[in-house]
C-alpha cells in the first residue's frame, strides 16, 4: 500500500462511521476485505464476528449486480435504511450508502460504502410527529368549537339581517382556511419532512422577507425590508420559513402602536450562515419573561387582553430548529426588541 493509501486507511480507521469494502471478484462472493474499527466501537463486531453485517451488505447484491449488468446505472450508488443487529442482539437503525467500484472496462470489482447510525434522526422524526399531532390538536379543538357554533348560527339565523349573515360567512371561511392550513403545514408527515435533509427547494431569502412585508402591509404600513448582503438563493422549506416570518410579524404588529416601524433585515451572520431578523421600537420583553417566551402556551403580562394561544412562537422556533437553526430574542438598549433567525446555510 502506498503512502496515500495508508493515509486514507488511517482516516477511515478513526472515523465515527463504519466503512467497509467488499471484494466482488470471481469466487469472492462479497467477502469483506476491509471493515473499519468503528464496527466494533458502535456495533460490537470483531473481524471474527462480521457475518451479521456481511449478510445485510450482500443480501440484495446479486440482484443489484444483475440490474447493473442490464444497463441500470442508477445501481452504481445506492442508499437504504434498515435495522442492523448489534452484537448483543438489539437493533440499531442505520443508513447504508454503498457504491460499486469498477475496473477500467466498467466491470464491478468491489463494493465500498459506509454505515451510519441514524438513531438520533429517527428519534427526532418521532418527536416532530408527536409535536405536530399535539399542535394540530391544540388548534383544532377551539376551531371545531367555532366551526360548530357558526354553523348553528347560520342554520338558525334566517331572520338576521344581511350584514350579520355576511359576517357569519366570513367567519366560516376563516375557520375553513385555518383548518386547511393545519392540513397543509401541521400534519405529522409535513413537520417531519421540514429540515430532515437538504431540501430540493431553492428560494430567494430577500423574496421571503419582501413577501412577508407585503402580506403584513394591510395591517401595518410601516414595514420595511433591509438587505445587507443576502445570497441570491438558499435551500430551506419555503412554506415553513414563510410561516415563521408571518408569526414574528404578527406578534410585532399586535404588540406595538399603529405607527411603530417594523424592520426586516437579512444579512450574512458573523458566525457563518444567514441571519433574518424582525425588529420593532415598541416595548421590550420583560427580562423575567425572555427565557420563557418560546415555551408552549406561555403568554406574558403584556398579552393580557390580546387574542392568542401562546403557541405561535413555540411553533416558529420548532420550524427553525428542524432546519438546524436557532430563533432568539433580544431587547434593544433604549426600547424595542429583535427576533433573530439564524440558519446554517451557505452565504
Q: Can you write the helix and strand succession as a string?
A: HEEHHHEEEHHHEHEEHEEHEE
What is the H level of CATH, i.e. the homologous superfamily of the largest domain? Histidine kinase-like ATPase, C-terminal domain
**Average of the residue pLDDT scores:** 79
How many DSSP helices?
A: 10
Give the total of domains: 3
Question: How many beta-strand segments?
Answer: 12
GO molecular function: phosphorelay sensor kinase activity
Pfam family, one: HATPase_c
Domain Histidine kinase: 134-347
Keywords: Kinase, Phosphoprotein, Transferase, Two-component regulatory system
Write the topology of this structure.
Elements: H1 3-13, E1 18-23, E2 31-35, H2 38-43, H3 51-58, H4 61-69, E3 77-85, E4 91-102, E5 108-117, H5 119-156, H6 162-185, H7 188-193, E6 202-203, H8 205-216, E7 223-228, E8 234-235, H9 238-254, E9 262-268, E10 274-280, H10 312-322, E11 326-331, E12 337-343
Parallel strand pairs: 7-9
Antiparallel strand pairs: 1-2, 1-5, 3-4, 4-5, 6-8, 9-10, 10-12, 11-12
Helix pairs in contact: 5-6, 8-9, 9-10
What does it look like?
The protein has 347 residues and is of the alpha+beta class. 41% of the residues lie in helices and 23% in strands. It folds into three domains: 115 residues, PAS domain (Beta-Lactamase, 2-Layer Sandwich), CATH 3.30.450.20; 74 residues; 152 residues, Histidine kinase-like ATPase, C-terminal domain (Heat Shock Protein 90, 2-Layer Sandwich), CATH 3.30.565. It is built from ten helices and twelve strands. Helix 5 packs antiparallel against helix 6, helix 8 crosses helix 9 and helix 9 packs antiparallel against helix 10. Pfam families: HATPase_c, HisKA, PAS_4. Its EC number is 2.7.13.3. It catalyses: ATP + protein L-histidine = ADP + protein N-phospho-L-histidine. It is an enzyme of class 2 (transferase).
Amino acid at each position: 500500500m502506498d503512502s496515500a493509501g495508508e493515509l486514507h486507511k488511517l482516516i477511515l480507521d478513526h472515523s465515527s462511521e463504519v466503512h467497509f469494502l467488499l471484494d466482488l471478484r470471481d469466487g469472492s462472493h462479497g467477502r469483506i476485505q476491509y471493515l473499519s474499527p468503528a464496527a466494533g466501537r458502535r456495533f460490537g463486531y470483531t473481524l471474527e464476528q462480521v457475518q451479521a453485517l456481511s449478510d445485510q451488505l450482500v443480501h440484495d447484491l446479486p440482484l443489484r449486480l444483475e440490474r447493473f449488468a442490464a444497463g441500470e446505472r442508477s445501481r452504481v450508488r445506492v442508499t437504504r435504511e434498515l435495522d442492523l443487529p448489534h452484537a448483543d442482539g438489539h437493533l440499531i437503525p442505520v443508513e447504508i450508502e454503498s457504491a460499486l467500484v469498477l475496473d477500467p472496462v466498467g466491470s464491478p470489482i468491489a463494493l465500498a460504502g459506509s454505515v451510519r447510525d441514524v438513531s438520533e434522526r429517527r428519534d427526532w422524526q418521532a418527536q416532530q410527529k408527536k409535536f405536530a399531532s399535539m399542535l394540530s390538536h391544540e388548534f383544532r379543538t377551539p376551531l371545531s368549537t367555532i366551526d360548530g357554533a357558526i354553523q348553528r348560527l347560520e342554520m338558525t339565523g334566517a331572520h338576521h339581517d344581511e350584514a350579520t349573515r355576511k359576517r357569519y360567512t366570513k367567519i366560516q371561511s376563516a375557520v375553513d382556511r385555518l383548518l386547511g392550513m393545519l392540513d397543509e403545514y401541521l400534519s405529522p408527515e409535513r413537520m417531519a419532512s421540514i429540515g430532515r435533509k437538504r431540501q430540493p427547494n431553492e428560494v430567494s431569502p430577500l423574496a421571503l422577507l419582501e413577501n412577508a412585508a407585503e402580506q403584513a402591509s394591510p395591517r401595518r404600513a410601516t414595514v420595511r425590508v433591509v438587505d445587507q448582503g443576502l445570497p441570491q438563493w438558499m435551500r430551506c422549506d419555503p412554506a415553513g420559513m414563510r410561516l415563521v416570518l408571518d408569526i414574528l410579524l404578527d406578534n410585532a404588529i399586535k404588540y406595538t402602536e399603529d405607527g411603530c416601524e417594523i424592520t426586516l433585515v437579512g444579512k450574512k451572520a458573523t458566525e457563518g450562515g444567514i441571519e433574518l431578523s424582525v425588529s420593532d421600537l415598541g416595548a421590550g420583553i420583560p427580562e423575567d419573561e425572555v427565557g420563557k417566551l418560546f415555551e408552549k402556551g406561555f403568554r406574558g403580562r403584556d398579552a393580557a387582553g390580546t387574542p392568542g394561544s401562546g403557541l405561535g412562537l413555540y411553533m416558529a422556533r420548532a420550524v427553525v430548529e428542524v432546519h438546524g437553526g436557532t430563533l432568539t430574542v433580544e431587547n434593544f438598549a433604549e426600547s424595542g426588541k429583535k427576533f433573530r433567525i439564524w440558519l446554517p446555510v451557505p452565504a
